[in-house]
Prior knowledge:
The chain is of the alpha/beta class. The chain is built from four helices and 40 strands. It is 14% helix and 30% strand.
Amino acid sequence: MEFTAKQLAQVLKGTVDGDPAAVVTSFAKIEHGKPGQLCFFANPKYESYVYTCRASILLVNESFTPAQPVTPTLIRVPDAYAAIATLLKYVSDQKKTYRRHRSLRSSIACSAKLGKKVSVGAFTVIGKHCRIGDYGIIHDNVSIGENTVIGKHCLIYPGVRIYPGTVIGDNVILHENCVIGSDGFGNAPQPDGTWEKIEHLGNVIIGNDVEIGSGTTVDRAEMESTVIGNGVRIDNLCQIAHNVQIGDNTAMAAMCGIAGSTKIGKNCIFAGQVGIVGHVTIADNTTVGAQAGVIGNVRTPGQTLVGMPAIDSKLFMRSYARFKQAGKED
Length: 330
């Protein structure tokens, strides 16, 4: 697809500094920009590339003042980083085409109800009494268990497994091979040293505008529901255990593990490989650094925690300075 600087400025509510007829057909990093491409500049560390970039259009902050001549046409916006996200979504939406499609190699129960222009790929199985909202795209080799409800404009990639009774909102993206609704790790120890499996009769509820990465597992509850709030972002290879509740707009990087019955607040950020024990509560706006381990309740909103066990980041850095000093003394 082709876009002119004038068109893109209208989409982004920005202003053109240069040739409004400049045309781009693709995107690139600022250090790799070539004619016909659009790049963006938001981090001051990359300013040197502004003057060597040969892209046709460069997206910059309104406040940016070049120190040297610049080759690309500039589109000035309040926040270049936010604008590139908006622009990529706009271009993606322009490419989407919705059409009713049912692969002859799919299996759709007679009692399932599919909305307008739903696409179903080959070898996909949709169980009894399922409801799929309008404009859904379900790729090949997907399994959707009976009594599952999926909202509008959902995108489900190949290999996804959705267990029976799951409820999924609108505009949800499930990436390849994620599993929604498998049994939690519930086992009761017996006097003879064996384990008795605890049956999980609950379900998983996923809100609107959620994205879940490849290979991530969200377990169903023993009773009631495991709940993923609106706007949540979960990266690849994460484990969300049974009865967990994740608040709206929380983001979680790859390989995080959340143990059972933990309640996570809204707008939290978990870096990669964070681990959280079960049956604790995490306050709103909590940030947890990479590989940290949370072993107790976090009651004060807005904290940043690091380390194992996780403590306030400022306290951790003071403690770390002491550790280094002690090592030198030895």
